[in-house]
Amino acid sequence: RFNYVRRWVRVPLGHGPIENPTKDDGVSKFESVAVDWTPPENVKLEDSKIVVLLLAGLTGGSEEGYVVDLVARVRAKGWHSFVMLGRGLARTPCQSDAFFHGARTCDFRATAQMLRRALPRDTKIVAVGVSMGGIIVNSACVRGELDGLCDAAISVSGCNDTNLNVNFLHSRKVWQPVLAHGLKEAFTESKSSVERMERKVGSGWREILGDVKNVKDFDNGIVTPLNDFRGADHYHEQMSPPKKDYANLKIPLFLVAALDDPV
User: Whose CA is closest to 232, among 53, 134, 102, 110?
Assistant: First the structure.
């Protein structure tokens, strides 16, 4: 274990299927995400040849076991690492009504921009996303949002076609209920979260949440009204760039997944 140094990055007040930066959404005039920095011993940031920008899986933060393991290995090489926390997740505040969703890439881009400005030009930045973080890294790379900011990217177990993945019955029946439980907790763990549910989902949000059995149920009942998607299928389309668009990649993107990945 080691101590993280927490920093905050100002991000756009992006909302909905198409990111629409606005100066005020009626709830807050700004939004930010937490970034946990781990400096290795006796290596200044400007002397780190490689910097890793890491985004964890669904509802995950910098204390997840797989994140701690990866950061420790990066640190042992004398490289600095930054773990970006999803907007409002891992007990961080979300100031606005634009809560976390997996199709949003502007927060990760803003964090990469901050790092690029802070580092010497010859420092290589590698984006790493795990699971939901991998999905976001995929989308950001394919859309060209990390061009000129990151030198390479790695997506670990990041689904490439979320709508197609809904047909994976083992995931839907066995594993997704576990993920859905974590989502219920993350989206309702604070007073402001409950107030957001009342405003955006309506007074019946508790009953809707109670009927959720898997991730698609959650996306239909909660994520869709929170972010003005037309439904879970529309949301999943926004999360998964078409396969043909991968031909437009400007930076190396390494996709790795287990053959028996339960998700």
Answer: 102
